[in-house]
């Protein structure tokens, strides 16, 4: 039996979806929805206000570790760019001469960097150095843009095997151990990533000849001119700092390589892995700041960390509000927000849905894909994970279909949607860095997206 709170929750979900369709940020409807659902549940204005705040606290507590980690990683990335250590890290890519090699080499580099520092910092690091230089030797920027989008947020963040932000959110929403999710997601992520990347490459080979313009004259706005000008100027007043670039690049490479080896050898997962990566990042950041700034390190370190955490909070603030709203429908929301026992709204909806639609593996998988796409219309894909996780566990409980493949499928579809399908999502960021139009880039990312989703869908159906 659905209560008033159930109907109000559905109403605000529909309002959020409508907002996304009209390309408006859905954060305000989600924030108002916290009060609306809280009031419908408690029938008390004061308690409704408290419920809305508890929902934000729940979302923040689940995301705080990822926020701090991303902030530290972004801080380190900015320091590497300041000392030109980033150019040393990507120097092997600058020897590329062919389109095919550029697509795969830059893509694999983007995938590896995304696993370590997430897609946006990785895109900034690679885009600022590789795109303008490869563009000058004849590699069309659309090739690099497709590679960065597909391998970065698509293949990289859909698994998020090292930082584990995405699987951590799904784990919190479903109660499934993060190690189980990581093991189950590995073949899905790799298979869908290979399919998406391969199809993107084929599409480029077929249609790149129709692309107007010459890559030699294409220069990403605000990046290549600045970079090339710096190279022409030679020595600057901060030359001593730049000379430490090789040392800083080596410290970062060895630090993260050692961390990955430790994680693999000791099979560290979840919060423990995030803690290890975060601690190593902080240690590298301290060492690099001291080596770079010398006596100014005391004051500069604070500035660096503030900038990094400010960026991370800016990225995750809307996700906190969106997650807080969707957590209302989960079992965790019932216990920690409404302060009552219960499986949550999503479970109740699924029970009702089972009376109308036969819940076979085909219909359940179709619902997961549909919900993941709708919930990712904000462009990030990340805010869809609590909703998809809650729906996956609810559908599993009612249909007796294993929850893990459903949750993994929702994670992969949600992240890929934000990476390659939504014009105002990661595609927009990539197009800005590469200096190409969003519409032109999507001509190649959408086929890659469809191939990746179909592969993930087929694999999931085989597992059920």
TrEMBL record:
Keywords: Membrane, Transmembrane, Transmembrane helix. The chain crosses the membrane at residues 53-80, 101-119, 125-149, 188-208, 247-267, 273-291, 311-333, 353-375, 387-409, 415-434, 446-462. This is Citrate transporter. Coiled coil: none annotated. Residues 213-235 are annotated as: Disordered. The keyword Transmembrane applies. The lineage of its organism: Bacteria, Bacillati, Bacillota, Clostridia, Eubacteriales. It comes from Desulfitobacterium dehalogenans (strain ATCC 51507 / DSM 9161 / JW/IU-DC1). It comes from the Bacteria.
């Amino acid at each position: 039996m659905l209560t008033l709170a159930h109907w109000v929750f559905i109403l605000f979900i529909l309002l959020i979806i409508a907002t996304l369709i009209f390309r408006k940020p859905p954060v305000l409807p989600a924030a108002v929805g916290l009060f609306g659902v809280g009031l419908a549940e408690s029938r008390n204005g004061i308690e409704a206000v408290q419920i809305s705040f508890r929902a934000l606290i729940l979302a923040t507590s689940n995301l705080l570790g990822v926020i701090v980690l991303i902030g530290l990683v972004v801080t380190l990335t900015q320091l590497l760019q300041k000392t030109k250590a980033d150019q040393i890290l990507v120097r092997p890519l600058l020897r590329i001469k062919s389109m095919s090699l550029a697509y795969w080499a830059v893509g694999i580099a983007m995938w590896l960097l995304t696993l370590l520092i997430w897609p946006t910092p990785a895109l900034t690091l690679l885009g600022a150095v590789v795109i303008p230089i490869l563009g000058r030797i004849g590699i069309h920027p659309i090739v690099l843009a497709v590679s960065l989008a597909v391998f970065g947020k698509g293949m990289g963040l859909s698994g998020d095997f090292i930082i584990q932000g995405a699987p951590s959110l799904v784990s919190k929403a479903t109660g499934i151990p993060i190690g189980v999710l990581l093991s189950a997601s590995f073949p899905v992520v790799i298979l869908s990533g290979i399919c998406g990347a391969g199809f993107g490459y084929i599409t480029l080979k077929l249609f790149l000849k129709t692309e107007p313009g010459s890559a030699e004259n294409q220069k990403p706005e605000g990046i290549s001119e600045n970079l090339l000008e710096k190279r022409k100027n030679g020595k600057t007043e901060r030359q001593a700092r730049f000379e430490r670039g090789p040392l800083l690049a080596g410290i970062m490479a060895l630090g993260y390589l050692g961390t990955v080896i430790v994680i693999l050898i000791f099979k560290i997962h979840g919060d423990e892995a995030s803690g290890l990566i975060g601690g190593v990042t902080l240690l590298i950041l301290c060492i690099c700041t001291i080596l770079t700034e010398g006596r100014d390190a005391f004051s500069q370190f604070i500035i660096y960390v503030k900038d990094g955490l400010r960026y991370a909070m800016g990225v995750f603030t809307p996700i906190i509000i969106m997650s807080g709203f969707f957590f209302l429908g989960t079992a965790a929301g019932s216990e920690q927000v409404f302060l009552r026992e219960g499986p949550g709204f999503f479970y109740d909806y699924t029970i009702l849905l089972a009376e109308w639609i036969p819940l076979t593996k085909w219909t359940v998988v179709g619902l997961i894909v549909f919900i993941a796409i709708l919930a990712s219309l904000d462009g990030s894909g990340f805010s869809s994970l609590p909703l998809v996780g809650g729906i996956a566990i609810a559908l599993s409980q009612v249909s007796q279909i294993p929850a893990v493949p459903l949750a993994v499928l929702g994670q992969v579809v949600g992240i890929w949607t934000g990476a390659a399908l939504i014009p105002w999502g990661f595609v927009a960021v990539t197009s800005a860095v590469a200096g190409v139009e969003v519409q032109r880039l999507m001509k190649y990312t959408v086929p890659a997206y469809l191939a990746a989703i179909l592969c993930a869908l087929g694999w999931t159906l085989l597992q059920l």
